[in-house]
């Protein structure tokens, strides 16, 4: 396989630390040769790590994409509402593209991106990393083997985790739907994609309910200040006390969430950043607008029905699923890697224990990167393409419209826009 080269647009947590790590782990396969990142410190740290010369470091994607094509692909890892223009410009320039999810919060932009990938014959791979996990890959294999007969019902739950929700969706970059995108799109387009993949059919109709119920001003403890470090008297009884989370919680420290607060992430810098920075705010005094719990019901054209539940109010950040068929059922826990298959006739209970790495969506991030690199380097077909990603994104937007309007949405009609 030839070595694949890339440019990176957006060196934040996902682009700068997760997907680009594949280049450091597999330097013979993949190399990042240029970066566009507006934050000077972040840009310089990334450039030093990947040995990128200053002349190939840019403040924005416009400067980078104005240059002659210098790599095989572009990784677009900007914020939700900033994907469309660099993706389109990169494809026009001749780059294949890896695009962080969601593609866009705008229905027309999502459809156009899919159309342009086809027009220019480019790989447009959206980061639906769950398809690459050992867990969901095994579930797909079991369904294709007919282990539970004809699939009839899917029950799927995403446990966001109280700490993850507070970090990303109350204090963080994805807190405000108007500035980023609705929760069901930004966080759960993964899950729409998985249900679409497992059902193996097009969506016919969709409904949804959900609210922002807890993380708002009216639920603030008496006297709670705007920032945790402004002498909050509730610090010992509050699960969301920022200094404790960012200095002690293993998900913040070991999984690198603390780098969203400040880089470098030593205690002195973290505490200083929390004094007046966004991640130091009281969770009841933020400008968040996304829901903290939501359910979605889906009817597919092949008569499979699916129910999805997203909730912030869990201890773990996990996904659990049940697949119910005519001959048996499957129960699965992605976090533990345990799958149980029950046969209705024999009443046999088979348990499968998968190896699931603790980090990177249980190993999915690096599996996706490997697949993307080999699609380019070897011309292999990947697990998903732009047209499928377009459909699952539109399912998420249809679910949000159903929630807001209190209606059942005809998916075929929803997808019409011109």
CATH architectural label of the largest domain = 2-Layer Sandwich
Number of helical segments with 4 or more residues: 16
Strand order of the largest sheet: 14-13-12-11-7-10-9-8-15
* Annotated CATH homologous superfamily of the largest domain: Dihydrodipicolinate Reductase, domain 2
**Mean pLDDT across every amino acid position:** 92
How much is the radius of gyration in Å?
22 Å
Annotation, overall tally of beta strands: 15
Largest sheet: 9 strands, mixed
Secondary structure elements and their pairing?
Elements: E1 4-9, H1 13-19, H2 21-25, E2 30-36, H3 40-50, E3 57-58, H4 61-65, E4 73-76, H5 84-93, E5 96-99, H6 107-120, E6 124-126, H7 134-144, E7 151-159, H8 162-170, H9 183-186, H10 189-199, E8 203-211, H11 242-248, H12 250-253, H13 267-276, E9 293-300, E10 305-311, E11 318-325, E12 328-333, E13 338-343, E14 349-353, H14 360-378, H15 386-405, E15 409-410, H16 411-414
Parallel strand pairs: 1-2, 1-4, 2-3, 4-5, 5-6, 7-10
Antiparallel strand pairs: 7-11, 8-9, 8-15, 9-10, 11-12, 12-13, 13-14
